[in-house]
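Lecture notes, unit on protein representations.

Consider one protein chain, 175 amino acids long.
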Amino acid sequence: MFQVCRSVFTKCPYPYKRLLTPQLLKKCADTGRFSFLKDTSCDLQQIAAKIEAVKGSPLQIFNANSATLLASLRLGAAGFSGVMANFHPDLYVRLTELWSTEQIHAETIQSFLGAASLVELQMYPVNAKYHLRTRGLPILLYCRSRDAGGFKNNHKHEVEQLDAMYRLVKQHLAV
């Protein structure tokens, strides 16, 4: 069973990534003490090597990168744990549920998720908070990592247009 681990405003791996090597990850897996890794490498070769390194252990690899999600599921990733679940978690759930049985739907969802993930480069996490606020969550735009004062009308339009595209994808897929 595949899962989506919903992260709510987790820290992105900035200013630099601290990636575990497959060899170190294997040592961790061999202890039996670990069950979850949020992989932020955005690199399918690294993800494949990590999945292979933990095979047979309770440690599961969850991809944090939307653009590589479907490919990583095909490699054996356990699910998704990325910040973009703040925008449309239901599509991530749907993709992880049907990726192996409904290829055309999976490809359509993946195409949307990959393109939609570009919004992360535009004032995230302020834009995610704005999105959640438009959905009725009483949330302020303030964040520690970004100045909400820089969130302009064009950013609002981007979020609103992304939401309109999301609704079209859902309608197309009858989700």
